[in-house]
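Q: Sequence in, structure out?
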Amino acid sequence: MMKLKHHEKSFTLIETIAAALLLSVSVVILSGISVHSLRAGSSMMHYEQAWDLADRQLTMVDYMGVRQQILDGPTEGVFEGDGVEFDWKLEVSETTVDFLYDVKVTVGWVQQQRYRTIQAQTRLNGIE
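A: Exactly. Output:
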């Protein structure tokens, strides 16, 4: 049988509770950081989809030609992407320079109960 000597040290109950409390607080903080990181990743995914949609619309205008887009093409629409509905709007206006047009695409969506938007604007040559 082993006898404990009086000068041997061991952890007291208060030290054990303090260590457990410190560990649990650390776990809660790390969990909060993880949740925030996942939400930020989801938000960035929606922004990436919105920029991709804006790029596709500007490419379509460039491909069709600005004048043809004004006459025939759609100027607004809705796009479904990964459970989020994106709406887009295309605006074309003439500049003071002949055959040069300002083209602006606005893409919007609802995320976390807030309406978010991005805009891309460029100038395109209207000569075909």
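The two ends are 99 Å apart (CA to CA).
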